[in-house]
UniProtKB/TrEMBL annotation:
<dbReference type="Pfam" id="PF10103">
    <property type="entry name" value="Zincin_2"/>
</dbReference>
<feature type="region of interest" description="Disordered">
    <location>
        <begin position="356"/>
        <end position="387"/>
    </location>
</feature>
<dbReference type="InterPro" id="IPR042271">
    <property type="entry name" value="Zinicin_2_N"/>
</dbReference>
<dbReference type="InterPro" id="IPR022454">
    <property type="entry name" value="CHP03883_F420-assoc"/>
</dbReference>
<protein>
    <submittedName>
        <fullName>Coenzyme F420 biosynthesis-associated protein</fullName>
    </submittedName>
</protein>
<dbReference type="InterPro" id="IPR018766">
    <property type="entry name" value="Zinicin_2"/>
</dbReference>
């Protein structure tokens, strides 16, 4: 389906080089980020009152090619159910030459997309990792992209120590979410698997999806709102994506809220950083803005704003303990409609006496419950990005 080796080689060949730094500056940046990630996790756990019981661990620091390789490894894990389905018994296989050419084309496409993103992502919590040599799947890993953080702080003209801690606060919030709320990772994984398996794989449908994608490209180039994510979905996938969008809006918005709420007490220049960073997010060339629309990155920026507003409103109304009821299980996650109108979520989850929620450091009884009809739902992957 995808030539992963070619995706890696294409991405690492096309990605732009990082900023020029001396060896000592590079060592200092790596050392700072490892130390600040541990410091940030302590701040986040104290503020959010989410405790998974695990001791703070330093983040993994990578360069741009390292980020590409890590994401390809994660994609392989995520797409494994679809790969198995496509190669299952009884399914008509395309001729070998067609499969080989197709996998190379998609490998180049994936590599090109990753090359574009690799110079923008500041960090991410990797939910899906290949099994270790013992065959055990890791629970997740926090990764920070050092050259992008250095490049951003230089272009913004902000204090490096403050900016690095500010970024770590956001990314560590994601680690705390997924380690302190045991059912959340499996919920996201199951929704992503369901989304992939809802694909229409017959040739006529695939051709129709390609035509729709081409229209989306043309619309984005003209300055419209078209994006490839919407263009290639089936009707069934659109329903699943609504749930995924809701949960990712929550975790990304929670990360942004915590980053700015904790910031004033530990990051002296947080107001200046936030102002300049937001201006940078909204900037870029016309080509850059077009690519961001096509890849759905602008939608992710919208998630930050909507999710943060939801969290802020709920915490202001019912306090942090009231907000933390959101982590009780899939049924307590907000719908997209509730994110837009937090009072509806408060009425359903916080003030409704019949809705029980378990402790944060324990699994919901018997495993995650099925969400109510129409309810609930990601760089969890919502890293701050340059633009």
């Amino acid at each position: 389906m995808i030539d992963w080796d070619l995706a890696v080689s294409t991405g690492t060949r096309l990605v732009r080089p990082g900023p020029q730094v001396t060896r000592e500056e590079a060592r200092q940046a790596v050392s700072d980020l490892r130390r600040l990630s541990r410091e940030a996790e302590r701040h986040v756990r104290e503020f959010t009152r989410i405790d998974g019981g695990a001791s703070a661990q330093a983040a993994t620091i990578v360069d741009r090619p390292g980020w590409i390789k890590a994401n390809v490894a994660g994609f392989r894990v995520v797409l494994e159910p679809l790969t198995q389905r496509m190669s299952g018994e009884g399914r008509t296989q395309p001729p070998a030459i067609v499969a080989a050419v197709g996998s190379r084309i998609t490998g180049v496409e994936v590599g090109a997309v990753l090359a574009f993103l690799a110079s923008r992502v500041l960090g991410q919590y990797e939910l899906f990792l290949p099994p270790d040599p013992s065959g055990r799947a890791p629970t997740g890993r926090l990764t920070l992209v050092a050259p992008n953080i250095v490049n951003a702080e230089r272009e913004l003209g902000v204090d490096p120590g403050d900016f690095r801690l500010w970024v770590c606060l956001h990314e560590e919030t994601h680690r705390v979410q997924f380690t302190g709320v045991p059912w959340l990772r499996e919920y996201v994984r199951s929704q992503m698997t369901e989304f992939l398996l809802a694909s229409d794989l017959d040739l006529p449908t695939l051709l129709e999806r390609l035509r729709t994608a081409a229209d989306a490209v043309a619309d984005a180039v003209r300055g419209g709102e078209g994006n490839l994510i919407d263009a290639i979905q089936t009707p069934e996938q659109k329903k699943i994506l609504e749930r995924l969008t809701a949960v990712m809006t929550l975790v990304e918005g929670h990360g942004d809220y915590v980053m700015d709420a904790v910031g004033p007490s530990v990051v002296p220049s947080v107001t200046e950083i936030r102002t300049r960073f937001q201006q940078r997010r909204e900037g870029g060339s016309r080509v850059d803005r077009t690519v961001r629309r096509l890849l759905g990155i602008d939608l992710k920026m919208k998630q930050y704003a909507e999710g943060s507003a939801f969290v802020r409103t709920v915490v202001d109304r019912v306090g942090m303990d009231g907000f933390n009821k959101v982590w009780g299980g899939p049924a307590t996650l907000p719908t997209q409609a509730e994110i837009a109108d937090p009072e509806r979520w408060i009425a359903r989850v916080v003030t409704a006496p019949a809705l029980e929620t378990p402790h944060l450091n324990g699994s919901p009884g018997g495993g995650p419950a099925e969400p109510a009809s129409g309810s609930v739902d990601g760089d969890g992957d919502g890293p701050p990005r340059e633009g």
